[in-house]
Every structure is written in structure tokens, then in C-alpha cells.
Amino acid sequence: MTSGREAAENLAAASKLIRQAKAQGAELIMTPETTNMMEPRRALMFEKAVAEEADASVAGFARLAAELGVWLLIGSLVVRVAPDKAANRSILFGPDGRIAARYDKIHMFDVEIPDGQSYRESKAFRPGEKAVHADLPWGRLGMTVCYDLRFAYLYRALAHVGARFLSVPSAFTRFTGQAHWHVLLRARAIETGCFVFAPAQCGTHAQGRETYGHSLIVAPWGEVLADGGEEPGVILAKIDPAAIDKARAMVPALTHDRPIGVPC
Question: What is the CATH number of domain 7-254?
């Protein structure tokens, strides 16, 4: 997607793509980070953001999941959790339209990018405090969001509690995406022996913010099964869960973890 500033417009755009994915046979569908809103001005973001129970996007996506009978992960929504804080919340809907799991992004993107852009996510967002997984018909899903991708321990922890699939909905900057997006996603897949699903924002957003795009589906051995490029649209791949066991049997690294003492 290329999400804009208005939630209603983004809901309509996402719903069109979700319907397209369903028409092509998808049973598990995911959207990028900040699907409902990419509002660069903090004051305006808080004028528009509402609590989850009052969010029209939550209600709309719940109805859509039930109508289509699919598992639907909305990569993240900006939802208000305090007068001056929002959560960057990933929500998984079941085929009945009910919320199966919620995950609030743990790692805040507080970074000065060499291209001149500055990001201070912690000024507007309250970080999550716990890892989250959910059971799908095909195996356990570990839920993460964007900047979490740089913290490998989170993914290993999810794999150790049974995750076989990992979601990484994102809005990676063009600058960092060009350098690190593909290699980090492939690394997370390889080191955990998991399938990695990474729907991504693309294109130019409000006030000239550029996101990298290249939504990816990565297999447990590190192969890129699908790459969405730099335009909005849908990518699909047929997922064989047996590939997880095969990859983990060839390199059983998850069984070789050892405690490491670190000198003071």
C-alpha cells in the first residue's frame, strides 16, 4: 500500500486489495504497518486517532474478514491508548471476524537517517511490553512490526515458543530499505527456520516521506518466494509447512542455543 493521511481512504484502498487477494485464492492475508494512517504531523495524528473499540477501521476489517472467511492480519493501526500516546498495533482477525491476537510494536524507531530525515517514534507511541504469538490452522504465527526486524533475539524467542511463521509488516524508509530490508528478512527466516511474511508500505506519502516497498514472502531456507516491488498491489505464494521441518532438520540451530557469560 501507499497509505495516506485519512483512515477512511486507506480502509477503502486496503479493502480493495484484500478482496483481490481473496479472489486469487489467499487464505491468510496481511497488510503493511500503519495501514489506517500515515499522518506526519503529531498533533493531527492525535486529532484523528481513536481508541481501538471506536476505530472504524477495526470494525471495517473485522466485517471484511468475516465476509471473506479469511485470516486477516492488519499489519498495524494507529490507535489511541492515552491522551498523548498511541499504540502501533498489529491486529489479527480470524475468519469469524473476531480479533484473535493483538501485538503492540515493542521497539521504537528513534533514528537520525543520513538522508536528512529524523524519526522519533517514542514521542507519539507507547511501546509494547511483550512478544505475541497466535495459532493459525497451519501453525503458530509470531507477530512483530517493522523496526523489530533489527532485534534478532525477538524472533529467536518466538521460534523457541513454537512460531513457524513470522509477520513483519513495515513502513521501512527508502534509505534503510535499500541497504538492509532483503538481507534482514532473509536472515530472520534462515536463523529461525520460519516462513517470513513482510507486507510493506511503498512510494511517497504525505510531506514527501518515502517508503521502500518490496513486500516479501521468504521461505525458511532463505529463498524469496515473492517480491512486491515498489508499486501498490498483491503478492502471493503457496506455503508448504513441511519446508519448515526440512530447513530445521538440515541446520538444527534452534536446538544448539547455549547460555553465554558476558564480562562486565
Answer: 3.60.110.10
